[in-house]
Amino acid sequence: GYCSAVFHLKCSGVSESLLAAVDGNRQVFWMCRSCTTMLLDMRHRKSVHSAFMSGQESLVDTHSQSVAEMKSELTELKAEIRSNFASLKNSNSLTPTSSRRPGDNPDLRKKLFHDKLEPKKQSQPLLQGTGNPVSPSFSSMLVAAPTPKFWLYMTRISRTVTVDQVTKLAVERLGVQDVEVTRLVAKGKDVNTMSFISFKIGMDTSLKEKALATSTWPQGLIFREFEDRSTEIFWAPIATASANQTASGATGTTTTPESTPPNLPAAGDGSENPNLGVESMEE
């Protein structure tokens, strides 16, 4: 009731059956004697009603005021948006437009559909002078043409053998000092990961027959005439191309052969050179 007092169930004088009915119906409630007397007073009832209506009116007024404020803000926002759209439209109308269509470039079109092909520039041939030199010192400015050489390919050599050791062997066996030895190991390749290494030996062409004689080289040394295949193109499967590539010639690159090359003669009965180590045929 109005007093908001708390009463014990036994002190209220309400039976359990009646209390169950009160709990089951929200419209049914129980009031103490003082609150009941106050409610039966007509003046008090009018006062309660007036207070309730006053609260309702205050709530309605607050709601109406909030709605009016929201409408006012929406009206201002609409006016601002319209103003912005109008200014944007006016600025677009003042921007000069091009008469060309997008992507229409006459210069590019001319290049794409030009039928006239420019002639390919041919390199001029080199000419060699035949007249007398201007001065005797002029001849010192010329580089002599390279002397043709015979190249010998040696393989299955221990990876510990050096260029100096092979050079010393070639000088002793061929009986000449003018030899050029190149170790055929790819640039950046670690020789410790290789089973063996190869060399090529350049010499005068007159020594070809002696260089290819098996009696010239120590027993067990494998060799043949060097073939420059740097300009040839060989087919190989993609998966094994890196293992079968061959590079040789003056660049000093080589490949590690998978097996003993065919037609490689073994050296004859010459004595072993203590400075040259030869690895066994098994990898």
Automatic annotation (TrEMBL):
Residues 89-100 have a biased composition (Polar residues). Residues 243-258 have a biased composition (Low complexity). It comes from the Eukaryota. Residues 89-110, 243-283 are annotated as: Disordered. Residues 101-110 have a biased composition (Basic and acidic residues). This is C2H2-type domain-containing protein. It comes from Culex pipiens pipiens. The lineage of its organism: Eukaryota, Metazoa, Ecdysozoa, Arthropoda, Hexapoda.
